[in-house]
Structures are given as C-alpha cells and as structure tokens.
Amino acid sequence: MKISSGTVRLIIPAASLAVLLAAVFYMQPRTMSYTGLNLLFNLAVPIALATIAQMLIMAVNDLDLSMGTFVSFCACVAATFLQTSPAIGILIFIGAIAVYAGIGVVIHVRELPSIVVTLGMSFVWGGLAVLMLPSPGGAAPVWARWLMTAKPPVIPMAIVASILIAAITHFIVMRSSFGVVVRGVGGNYRSVERAGWSVLRLRAATYALAGFFAVLSGIALVGLTTSADANIALRYTLLSIAGVILGGGEFVGGKVSPIGAVIGALTLTLAGSFLSFMRISPDWQIGAQGAILVVVLALRLLLNRLEKREKNR
Amino acid sequence: MNAPRTLLAKPWIWSFVATAAVWIITILFTGGASTVGLSQAALTFAAFSVIVGIGQMFVITLGPGNIDLSVPSTMTLSGTLALKLMDVQDSMIAVGLLLAIVLGLLVGIGNYALIKLLRIPPIIATLSMSFVIQSTAIWANRGLRIKPPETLANFTTSSLVGIPNIALVALILSALAWVLLEKSIYGRWISAIGQSTFAARMTGIPVDGTRFITYALCAVLASICGYLLASFSGGAALNMGAEYLLMSIAVVVIGGTAVAGGNSNIPGIWGASLFMFLVVSMLNTYGFGAGFRLILTGLIIIAVILAAGGRQSTR
Q1: Its membrane topology, per UniProt (chain A) (predicted)?
Q2: Is B142 left (phi over 0), alpha (psi -120 to 50) or beta?
Q3: I need a labelling partner for B28 at 20 to 30 A (CA). Which of A79, A265, B13, B235 fits?
C-alpha cells in the first residue's frame, strides 16, 4: 500500500502525542482511566476548535492574530446573552460571523495584510468583551454545561468531541469540493480565479467558517469554566497557531491538516499536564513548553529529510 | 513646486497627518492647558515603541513570515537581569547596559539558530524562544523589586531643553538605523532579501549572515528598550513587555512599512508610535471607558490601514 504524503505528515504529530501520553501514563498511572483522560483532555476541546478556526484562515495564506480575543469575546457572549436571552445571543454570534466574513472581504479587496487587520480587530473584540463583562462573571448556558460535562459510555467526552471535530472538519476541508478550492486559494489563487471561482467569495466563506468554529470554541470554553471574563482565552492566539504548525500545517501554500490540527491542540494541552507531573518548577513550565515545541518541530524536519531522500532514490 | 507632491508620495506622511489631527483634537478639548505635558508624555512613551519598532521593522523587511515574537520577553529579561546586576549602584550603569546588549545578542543567536538549523518558521521559532526567555525572567525575578540606580532613573525620567531624554535616545537610535537602512550596504541587502530571497541569493548577497544580523539587531534593540523601560518605571515587572508585542508590529505597519517586506522606512515608525499613544490619551481625555477605548483604538488602526493601504495594491 502506498502511503500518501498527507499521511506521512500526520505521523510525527500523532507519534509525539502518543509518546507524551505514554509518559504521562507512566508517571501517573491513575490518569489511565475514564475520569483521568477526561481531566487531561477537557481543556483541549475549545483549543482544538480555535486551532481549526486558525487553520482555515491559514489555508488561504492569512493569519488571524485576533483569535484569542475573539474566543474571549464569544465566551463572554455565551456567558451573558446566550444564557439569559438565547435569541439575542444567537443574533450576536451571527453578527460576529458576518463581521468575520467582512474582514475576509476587506482583506481581499484592498489587498491588506491579514496580520494587521486582525491585529486591529483584536482591540475591537477585546473592547467589546470588556464592555460586556468588566469583571469576571456570567454563567454558562445549561445546555453548554450539560454538553461539556456529558459522560458518554466507555470513551470520555473530551476524546469523543476531539474525534468528532477532527472527522467533521476533515470532511469539510479535505473531502468537500469547497475545501479543495479553499486550499487551492492558498496554493495559487490566480489559477483558482482563472478556473472560474470567485476568490472573494471563497475568502469570505472561509473567514465566516473560521468565525463559526471560533464561536463554538467560546461556547465550549464557557461550558467547561461555567463563567467567563474578557481575558479568558488570550493565549489561544499563539496556541492555535502553534497547534496548526505542530499538526503539520504550513503558513503558506494551503497545506493544512484538520486531523493534525486537532492532534496538535491535544499535544499542547497534554504538554501542560506532562510538565506538572514531571514536578518541574512552575518557573520553568512555560520554557519547557517552548522546548517541547522545538523538539517536535526538529523531529518533523528529520522526517521531511527522510521523505525527500526516499523520493530522490 | 515638486516638494509637496514628493512629500505626499511618502508612505509615512499619513501617520504624521493622523498624529497631528489627534494631537489637535486632544488639545482643543483641554483648551490648550496640557499642551506641553501631553507632548512630553507622547514623546516619552512613543520612544519606547520606536526603539522596539525599529528592530521589528528590520525583521519584517526581510520578507513574508519574518517576525520576532520574542520582543516582549527579551525586554522583560533584560530589564530584570540588568537591574539585578546594577543593584542600585551608579557605578554599574555601563555594565548593566553591556549586559543588556550581550543578552540581546544571545537571544538573537538563539532565534536565528532555531530558524536556520531547525528550519522552523520564524514566528514559531521566536515564539518558542520567548517561552524559554520568559521562564528565565520568571526565575530571575524572584524576590523584591529592585530599583534602578539613581542616576539612571533620573536620566530616563528627566528631559533636555523640553525634550525627554528617552526620546533623544530613541532619536539617536533612529538616526543610526536610518543610516544603516538607507546608506549602508546592509540596508540594501535586507531590502533585496525582502523583495526576493531567491534573487538576492543569486546575486551573491550573504543571505544567512544578513538575516542573522537582523534578528540579533532586533533582539538587542528590544533588550536596550527593556533596560530603559525598567529604569524609567522604577523597576522591572514580569509583564512589562506584554503590550509591546502588538505595539511593535502595529507601529511598523501603520508607519507605512510593507508587511510583505522589502520596503521600509524609519520616519513612519515615529509617526505611528506618537499616533498610537495620542489616540489612547485622546480617548482618555474624552472620558471613554476601557471598553470603548479598545474598540476605538482597533477601529482607528483599521481605518488608517484602509486609508493608507491603497498604494500597496500596485504590487
């Protein structure tokens, strides 16, 4: 059986997740249980959704530096409006997704750098979040809480959710014709344009879809934490970018992998638990996380070299 | 009669126009009462953004994907370690500065080693590096907040003929950077690399050496800025660099440097830094709350980009 290069790309992320998981099991055997796994991966669900959103943006060669503030904003909406008056909450979310589509249009029409526009938007989302929740508070909608704390048989919710996210987005991005054209925009938008598609519409749709996943991320986060504050997800911007890269995605060229992105998000979450089990002093935990990132990327370089050597043979 | 037209064609002019507009609006509101105070504050705080902005600009000039995310953590580490080493002794001021510069060099070497040896995209390499640097800073910051040596603290907070000393330092650094960018072979090289790395390599430009120097330069400038900021604010804090991550990128881009690389300018960084500070103080004087202030700051950034962005579409 011939292994496609896409599968090869997934080997390193999957292997690093497996190694990390094995190490955690070895150090703390009690995590090898239903509850243990759920606790380990609980916080990965919102990160995975945000990573998928970032991945969509990166598929069209852009970068979203407002991801963290936007997810925080969504979490604040979910903890306030969505909980007290669901109709208004849903309207706000639809509006936010429309704004995302609008950002895509503006970036495309004016040929603006996405980094700068989203940088500006990060202030806007942050401001809106502060307006809604000046101090931490709010409450999770009952159904979101129920969904995130559900206990399906055999497999913990966090794992089920991750697999579902990976499967659905894999279908959208890798299997549907929409996904193929979106990745085509990242690869060579001129040829996509010449083939008759409207790149403007594609970019708007991609941004809207990314906005949708970021909204889900915000709701999932509130479902876990039961309350929100304006700074709740600020680190998601960098986590989501790192997750996509860890999962085998590239900054340019439309090379992305939804399954890889979810695995990348899981790996980043697990790295945190791993370090606390290692009893590494809290001072060095962030640093060690950086080191893990470097090691995984070094492994990937090694694998890419091997792949190239195989091809040259 | 060509002067006004060539001036209007400069990409950085818009940031100054916007700055002047915001300055006038703020002054009008206060009835001219705070003219001197506001201008001095603007110059002081803009100076810090200018110093980190220049470094970031050199990196962004290198072309798509080049960005240094380790700026804030480098600032924090250098401020923390330098103050610790100086230990309130005036005689150690120069040694502290030297430490800051060496630290910057080390960070630059680390950043570029990751980028080059591991072929990691710069954004991830500098991000990983910043985690490590931040950890070191947390570890070093244990204990009491150390005050800066008195002479240094006085120097950073006082001014010479009405212009804050910090702004003068930033002005000297900008002049040096301008010479480096416009008049030296190195400046030509980074622009060439930014326009086409492949073509630059073909013409025999030492691409790797130039990129390495650029990352080192950016880290050294961030380090010096951290040293000055810590002295100015009476001690190093772990989050002192945080706002300079977005700021360093924002001032470069608003200042008219092409994000795609290969075309940059120094005056724009000054315009943009003054603008960013004045916008916040304008919204403050008008009594807006934190939420509205953030929203308006964001909308103004986007508006400036929209207004100035047209010229980039000729690419």
Answers
A1: Multi-pass membrane protein
A2: beta
A3: B13
Scanning B37-66 for CB atoms below 8 A from A yields: 64-65
Instruction: Give contacts of A294 with chain B, Cβ < 8 Å.
Output: 114, 118, 120, 125, 128
pLDDT number for residue B257: 77
What average pLDDT does range B293-314 have in this prediction?
A: 71
**Phi then psi for A149, rounded to 5 degrees?**
-105, 10
The DSSP letter of residue B144 is S
Determine whether the interchain pair B246/A121 forms a contact, defined as Cβ–Cβ distance below 8 Å: no
Q: Which comes out higher in pLDDT, residue A311 or A81?
A: A81
Q: Give me the residue spans of the domains in chain B.
A: 8-310
DSSP-assigned letter for residue A228: B
Asked if residue B315 has pLDDT above 50, the reply is no
Domain B8-310 has CATH 1.10.3470: yes
The pTM for the full model equals 0.82
Q: Check if B307 contacts A (Cβ < 8 Å).
A: no
Distance from CA of B201 to the nearest CA of A (A): 21
Cβ proximity of B141 and B238 under 8 Å:
yes
Q: Note whether A131 contacts B299, CB cutoff 8 Å.
A: no
Mind giving me the DSSP string for A107-167?
HHHTT--HHHHHHHHHHHHHHHHHHH-SSSB----HHHHHHHT---SSS-HHHHHHHHHHH
Between chain A and chain B, the number of residue pairs with CB atoms below 8 A apart is 139
What is the phi/psi pair of residue A205, to 5°?
-65, -40
- For A110, the closest of B127, B294, B309 (CB atoms) is B309
CA distance linking residue A173 with residue A312, whole number of Å: 30
Q: Is A130 on the interface with B (CB under 8 A)?
A: yes
Separation in Å, CA of A34 to nearest CA in chain B: 32
Structure tokens at A6: 């896409």
**Model confidence pLDDT, tens digit, residues B222-239:** 999 999 999 998 888 888
Residue B249 and residue A115 in contact, taking contact as beta carbons nearer than 8 Å: yes
Which residue of B121, B133, B249 is in closest CB contact with A251?
A: B121
Contact B66, B120 (CB under 8 A): no
Of B292, B296, B298, the CB nearest to A122: B298
Residues from chain A contacting residue B290 (CB–CB below 8 Å): 127, 130, 134
Tens digits of per-residue pLDDT, B166-208?
Answer: 999 999 999 999 999 888 999 999 989 988 888 998 888 898 9
pLDDT tens, residue by residue, A200-228 = 999 999 999 999 999 999 999 999 998 89
Which whole number is the average pLDDT over A64-71?
A: 92
User: How far is Cα A302 from Cα A292, in angstroms, rounded to an integer?
Assistant: 15
CA distances from A47 to A14, A22, A158, A233, B160 (A): 17, 21, 11, 9, 50
Instruction: Write the DSSP symbol of residue B118.
Output: S
Is the pLDDT at A1 greater than 70? The verdict is no
